[in-house]
Amino acid sequence: MERELRIVSDDGESILLTDSSGNKYRAERKSAPHPTLISVAPNGATELTIKEIQARLRSGESPRELSESTGTALSKIERFAGPILHERNHIISSALDTQIKRGRNDLTLRDVVNERLGARGVDLSSLEWNGYRQEDGSWIISVHYPTREGQSSGEWILDTAKRTLAARDEGARWISGDDRSPQEKVRSQLPTELLGGGSEREPREAPRLMAVREEVEPTSEAARDGVVGRAKVPSWDEIMFGKKPEE
Fold first, then answer.
1. Which of 45, 130, 172, 201 would bridge with 167, disulfide CB 3.0–4.6 Å?
2. Is residue 182 part of a domain?
3. In a domain, 233, yes or no
4. Per the domain annotation, does 205 fall within a domain?
């Protein structure tokens, strides 16, 4: 019995076809003049193109997860996974060498994580790093590590163009040292010369404006109303500099 098949997609490696009942078939290209039908995608799942495979891998999925969720052959996914997995590893390495702003003591993410977790007895060889790209082009860098309660983690946003890292969740903020008090955070942003090289200074009292009262002669009209004298309102120069108009 002949069955009419319609081509849905062709990525150069295989052809996805469908029949009038909605059943889907995948035909891999061989050296023969005509492709040979060799398999059917399970559960009616649609085969992915090369571009879709690479985009899904770049967004954080593993080759096996991608194969199981789409029905695409794992062997096909693995043929195009190498460059993407290499890119993700490169981004993670770049993030580890990126400095995290902590006032006057800027350390790389690697140094901060090793210092923070190592001091608390975490086996640094057990850290699991991952990186994936978001739709806006920024990358999410995450670390998972064992704790007494099980597992904990932290996530940062990496801007590859600006070479900056920002904590994305509470776990990352704690690892980065952002659990400082508000006063410590403010002090860390002040120039060293304003802090006297790090030593404490007594706060200086803000200058206060003092009232200036000077008796002036009333006008004849005011005198008729019973006014014998009135206070002079000082000018701005007198308030700020103590100057009188004749000076």
1. 172
2. yes
3. no
4. no
Q: Is residue 210 assigned to a domain?
A: no
pTM over 0.70: no
- The total number of residues shown for the chain amounts to 247
> Do residues 152 and 127 share a domain?
yes
> For each of the chain's 247 residues, which pLDDT tens digit applies?
456 777 777 777 777 777 766 666 777 665 545 544 444 444 445 568 888 899 999 998 899 888 888 878 888 899 999 999 999 999 999 999 998 876 556 789 999 999 999 988 899 999 999 999 988 889 999 999 998 888 999 999 999 888 899 999 999 999 988 665 555 555 655 555 555 554 445 555 555 555 555 555 656 665 665 555 555 566 656 655 555 555 5
- Total domain count for the chain? 2
Q: What is the domain extent for residue 151?
A: 97-190
